[in-house]
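User: Run a structure prediction on this.
Assistant: Running it now.
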Amino acid sequence: MPLVHLHVIEGRRDAAELRRLADVVQEVMRERFAAPPRDRYQLITEHKPGGIVVEDTGLGFERTDDVVLVQVVQQGRSTEQKQALYAGLAERLGAECGLAGTDLVVSVVENTTADWSFGNGVAQFLTGDL
C-alpha cells in the first residue's frame, strides 16, 4: 500500500515517458518493497519550470530539469528495504528512462495502519479486511 508521489518539471516528458517512469517505479516497489499485486497508488505532478527547487545538500551534484522527486508514504519497511528501494530506483530509472542518478531524490515517510482507508470510509487494515 505505498502511496507514491512523482514530482517532475512540466514539459520535460511526454505522456508515454511519464507512464514508463511510473511503471518502472511500480516495478521497483514490487521487487524491492514487497508491494502486493494490484497495490498501485501513484500521483504524478508536473510542476511549472521553477516550481521544483532541489539543491544538493552540499554533495556537489549538478541537477538538471529532468529531476524526479519521489515521495513514498508507507508502513513497515526495514532500513534494508528502503536502501534497496533507493538503489533499485536509481538503477532502473537510469537504465530504462535515462534518468541520471543525480536527478533522483527519494523520500520515504512512515505512517500506520490507522492512516489508510481504501474506500467506503472504512479503515480496512483495522477492520481486518486487509
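Strands lie at 3-9, 41-47, 68-74, 104-110.
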